[in-house]
Each structure stands twice: as C-alpha cells, then as structure tokens.
Amino acid sequence: MNPPRQAARTPRARLRRAAAAAALALAVTGAATGCDAAKEAAGDIVSSATAAVASAAQEKMDQIKDGVNASGDVSAGPTSVDGDRTVATITATNPLDKAADYTVMVTFRDDGGNLLDTVVLTIDAVPASASKSGTARSNRTLGGATTAEIAQALRH
Predict the structure, then answer these.
(1) Which end is more exposed in the chain, N or C (fewer Cβ atoms within 10 Å of the end residue's Cβ)?
(2) CB 45 within 8 A of CB 26
C-alpha cells in the first residue's frame, strides 16, 4: 500500500497549483471575452496568486521555532532588476554576542503601496555584533517602480 501523497499540501505545491490555475484562467478569459474584461480578469488572477504567495510565505515563517522578533535588526535596500526579476539587498545586523540566523519575509510593493510579491529569505550565521546581507529575489517579473519592505524578521 502506498502512503498518501503529501506534496499537494506543501506551500510550494499550492503555489504551483495556483499559478497553473491562473495561467489557464487567463488563457480562457482572453479567448472568451473582450480586452477590458480580460485585463480585469488578469488583475484578479494576479491578486489571487499574490495572496497565495503571501500565505505560503507566512506559513514558512510560522515554521520557525524559538524565533524572536528581529524586525529592528533587518533593513531592505533599494530594488533593482536582475534579469527578469526584481531584487533587493537585505541586511541583518546581529546585536548579540554570538552568531545568529535570520529568516526574513520581504514584500515587494508598487508606488501605490499595493502588494506585488512576497519572498522569504534566510541569512545564516550572522556573526556576533556584525552585519551580513542576502538578496531577496521576486518570484516573478514585476513591472514598474517597486520597493522592498521587511514584513517580518525572526532571529533564531
């Protein structure tokens, strides 16, 4: 007897299913309706996919055990484009007298403050009383001007 499949329950699997459903819905909507309706439907699909990504990121943050709020230890630099993705340098400054790991949830927002994407970044082994940086990379291509913000940071 085969064990039940667990992959479909993981945040990554849910994200893949949401992206596939979004692509299918976009293709069907574009073929079946006018341009304005397709744009509206595409916006709704992107919003749903963005919400799914944010939910998966929060689930990943919730898996960190014994983490303490470290939002004050972490900062986001300006965004730039690397290939087809938006990136930002995230810097963790460890105030402790021993090395620590940081798990950081970063949100990318447009000029209007709308959520475009969410990623989780781990910065391992930040030395005592020192800083270390990592790169937050968007999950998809983001158009227009964006900013990166620290939504949550845990030191563990």
Answers:
(1) N
(2) yes
C-alpha atoms less than 13 angstroms from C-alpha of 113 in its C-beta half-sphere: 0
Structural contact between residues 152 and 62, judged by C-beta atoms closer than 8 angstroms? no
pLDDT tens-digit profile of 49-65?
677 777 788 888 888 88
- Distance CA(30)–CA(112), nearest Å, equals 27
Residue range 90-145, pLDDT digits in tens: 999 999 999 999 999 999 999 999 999 999 999 999 999 999 999 999 999 998 99
80-to-61, 133, 141, 150 alpha-carbon distances in Å = 25, 16, 12, 16
Mean pLDDT of all residues in 14-33: 45
Model confidence, pTM: 0.68
